[in-house]
Amino acid sequence: MLLVLGRRVLLSFVKRVIPQDPVLLSNPILQDFRTIKFRVIHSSTVFASATRQNTDTMPERRPFVRLPTDVYPVNYGLCLKPDLIDFTFEGKLEAIVKVNLATNQIVMNCADIDIITASFVPEGGEGEEINATGFNYQNEDEKVTLSFPSALQKGSGTLKIDFVGELNDKMKGFYRSKYATPTGEIRYAAVTQFEATDARRAFPCWDEPAIKATFDISLIVPKDRVALSNMNVIDRKPHPEDDSLLEVKFATTPIMSTYLVAFVIGEYDFVEGQSSDGVTVRVYTPTGKAEQGKFALEVAVKTLPFYNEYFNVPYPLPKIDLIAIADFAAGAMENWGLVTYRETALLIDPKNSCSSSRQWVALVVGHELAHQWFGNLVTMEWWTHLWLNEGFASWIEYLCVDHCFPDYDIWTQFVSADYTRALDLDALDNSHPIEVNVGHPSEVDEIFDAISYSKGASVIRMLHNYIGDKDFRKGMHSYLLKFQHKNAATEDLWDCLEQASGKPIALVMSSWTKQMGFPIIVVDQEQQGDDRILKISQKKFCASGPHNGEDCPNWMVPISICTGEDPGCTKLKVLLDSPETTITINNVSPDQWVKINPGTVGFYRIQYSSGMLESLLPGIRDLTLLPVDRLGLQNDLFSLSRAGMISTVEVLKLMEAFVNEPNYTVWSDLSCNLGVLSSLLSHTDFHEEIQEFIRDLFTPIGLKLGWECKQGEGEPPGAGGHLDALLRGLVLGKLGKAGHKPTLEEARRRFKDHVEGKQILSADLRSPVYLTVLKHGDSATLDTMLKLHKQADMQEEKNRIERVLGAISAPDLIQKVLTFALSEDVRPQDTVSVIGGVAGSSKHGRKAAWKFVKDNWEELHNRYQGGFLISRLIKLSVDGFAIDKMAAEVKSFFESHHAPAAERTVQQCCENILLNAAWLKRDADDIHQYLLKRKAPPV
Ligand code: BES
Ligand code: ZN
């Protein structure tokens, strides 16, 4: 779990913790991909797929070329022997391959591996073995060409390669992960992370998702270590040359892509269960912590049959293991049959884990298990279709959690967590279409972003709503059956859903996946007798205001409409397929409000006429609008204010209407937007006034909730109170941070008791208390916090502390936190959130964090090797600036310090900085006046 300032953040990208907003920086250095040959070319519908422009002066990369298919693998016989002391490994590959076309060369992917020998034995060739005479490494392309003295003839054969590699410390490929034994001894496990393109760092292979083969894996490991891989163990015998080693052999896998292969060698305990459909499920934990695997086990055991039934396709392997890995870059990885997780995404301690951790574990387990079907059984043909994997899993994880934990009201949380984040990012000029042509690994890394995940999930949610659950499931079932053990592209899914529903799915969906952005729906109304006439039009919404140009794109927009008579029920559905239309709703009395997009399902923003908006506002105060719609309305208006379409003062007035709000998610979204505003106003000299506004808004709900949890709150599922526990943490943290005196005093009192061991803080109160005391604390507070960090046995507690350290105010202490971020005490993947916490906490923190990133760029870049964590770090460090010249500074820094996987992120950040600056210039005075007037006694 990642919580940044009280808001959950997916690990591969960043949510709105700081203002996001636009300017165009033309620095796309990637080549034009029109030259790429795709193995499968699908006829596209009316919308052309966008490619990256090539407009600037940066050096061009050679065009990316996919592997030739004249030789391809059928089965990999792979034996690996890791050395956990020297951090090296030896490997032996015996791959059965098919030669399609006689050739004397084999081209494979290979990176950071030394090949010792390679040979080819033709099938039925009576012992004839052809030794390769040359290994030509093309390092930049991560390929090797093996040359043979004579042509390999069409037919089958065995390719044998002996090689060696390093167990690296970069959290990718075959790498080492550090852990301490219960007695404090430091040891290492050997683990893998292959997605997207790092299987090639563990063994030479055809590392493309469409080149599927079976795998027979053996591991040679110290006999006191656990050895796991995708399949169950079929043989375990002492190594003939060394009796301290065991050779562990695993069953043959189904045909699968290389990025889903995994192995783990280390010391672990486990808990085991059986799902009702007969699959053995184990959750592996660090030794001595098996109990902490129980919650994830319960979720997994419920989830497998849920998907089995939903897809009507059984899970195809005999077992599934879920394992917590100490050093882990992503949140979790769906390797087939051996899913790897960060410790914080899998382990739950009944006493020391907070409610949001439980919810996060449930979502992540739901997400990765969905991939076992959607991704693993049916795999995207190329990374361009990555969104199919990630968008779908990011949608269905909510369906699964809603099934397992109905009291989480998880779909409302979807809107705040994924839907609004996707809208924010996709409103930038530097966004990209969901389907995007990618080639080189750094481009692939780049699309593990909120567009693939959150926009992907949001448009699937809209599609599900448009089709209806019954036909959606029918289509999903036929898609999975038709493409199981094969690969598919986006159009293949549309075909199946079109067949199942009889609706024009490809046409509707292409408008959402092939062009970037989304529309703003502009609505006005007129009463004619008993009828309400709506005038509806669409324009592209941009973070800098609506698109007013000539060639404005259009979307096929499923629009639903409800009225005040029954706010939860859709009265009318239309498909808007033109720039504007007029709709008549019969039998609506003049006193009734009309609302577009009930449930906030359609992926668009709405601009109501002032009359329509006026009529909706009482529904916020009297709670007759659904929570998700109260949230959606507030979020739309906030976004319109950032785009300069309405005054921010209007939004502040609207926020005050939420004073009676009872719903956690509505508060959470509002609180996040206020955080954005507060960060923006930290550039002014009236920052204190917005803190006062926050205190006033949150005080009534704070008083109502109090500090003590009600009976049953925060306890395991079914006990209720989950959302109350989340709300209390949110509100107390917000009040404490904003300097609300009674909250600060109580937080200090409770913190003291906690530290002295008199009264341990409940897990749900720790984040808000830590945040409050640090924000208003001194060097003694920081030292106490660092001591708590050292003593913490659970990674969840360490992360909780790491994320709030940046709240400390004194400049010298901020520096101390930044130094701590790069110390041995912080896991490599967590450094990013410590630095991000500093940048997001204060004006001084923002400057100090950016300077720190610049000063330590080499180390940081080297540490993350250009993976997605570097994008996250950049975004967290610079997105909050609101001065034009900072955009220029950031641009220029990254022109001389390349981060290929973060190019688009850098452009988005620069765009955001300029948008912030424009927003501040435009609205700061009015906001200041409003905040002053609000406090003035009435005349
Ligand atoms: N397939 C991804 C893991 C991944 C992410 C691999 C980035 C390579 C690069 C996995 O299914 C995933 O999406 N993990 C998420 C957590 C999930 C609950 C959204 C993550 O790591 O953030
Ligand atoms: Zn995923």
How does the SSE layout of this entry go?
Elements (H helix, E strand, L loop, with lengths): L2 E2 L2 E2 L62 E13 L4 E12 L3 E7 L3 E10 L7 E2 L2 E5 L4 E10 L2 E12 L6 E8 L5 E8 L20 E9 L3 E4 L3 E7 L2 E9 L12 E4 L1 E7 L5 E7 L7 H19 L6 E7 L6 E2 L4 E5 L12 H17 L6 E3 L5 H19 L5 H17 L14 H6 L3 H18 L1 H15 L2 E3 L1 H12 L3 H9 L5 E10 L2 E10 L16 E7 L8 E5 L3 E6 L8 E3 L8 E4 L1 H7 L1 H4 L5 H16 L5 H9 L7 H18 L5 H19 L16 H16 L3 H15 L7 H13 L3 H13 L3 H10 L6 H11 L9 H9 L3 H13 L1 H8 L3 H11 L5 H13 L6 H33 L4
Parallel strand pairs: 3-13, 19-20, 20-22, 23-24, 25-31
Antiparallel strand pairs: 1-2, 3-4, 4-10, 5-9, 6-7, 6-10, 8-9, 11-12, 13-16, 14-17, 15-16, 18-19, 21-22, 25-26, 26-29, 27-28, 27-30
